[in-house]
Amino acid sequence: MKASGTLREYKVVGRCLPTPKCPTPPLYRMRIFAPNHVVAKSRFWYFVSQLKKMKKSSGEIVYCGQVFEKSPLRVKNFGIWLRYDSRSGTHNMYREYRDLTTAGAVTQCYRDMGARHRARAHSIQIMKVEEIAASKCRRPAVKQFHVSIANLYDPILQSQPKIVDLIPVVREDHNHSVRYP
């Protein structure tokens, strides 16, 4: 998968094709993060083929739709459990991000994993994404934003000079001439 642009959250539902042996096969639902619906369907088949005896030629997609955030104007903390393949092996990881949407947090995660661990998008598997309370956050990079607004340092207010400093002080008794030996 190429994680170009911002990722979107899709709900993909699929099943095996009905056969005389199994006329009503069970449905499988997955939450997929992808740049578009075509990639979302492709990732669905990739994951389902690993978990069940299903593949695209013997199955069908029943539903593929984008999931929208319920409150996209509120900043939330997200915990992301993921698994990725590095040069040395497969690793499990837990990461935390602050964002307005789940898809935004996952996009941040893909960018961060590429930057810090050189992990390509196709080697990252998102296991679970959960909105977490401020009290449950573990990472200092996320916890630093949980302080109240009054405690935040404002560099603009701190760097303004006082009015007394703006008045030039000229002393008449001081000699301004420079002497060279």
Describe the structure.
One of its GO terms (molecular function) is structural constituent of ribosome. This is Large ribosomal subunit protein eL20. The protein is α+β, with helices and mostly antiparallel strands and 181 residues long. The chain folds into 2 domains: 8-66, Ubiquitin-like (UB roll), CATH 3.10.20.10; 76-147, Roll (Ubiquitin-like (UB roll)), CATH 3.10.20. The chain has 5 helices and 6 strands, in the order ββαβββαβααα. The protein has helices at 37-51, 102-117, 140-143, 155-159, 163-166, and strands spanning 8-16, 28-34, 59-66, 76-85, 90-99, 124-132. The strands form 2 sheets. A 3-stranded antiparallel beta sheet has the order 2-1-3. Strands 5-4-6 form a 3-stranded antiparallel beta sheet, with helices on one face. The mean pLDDT is 88.
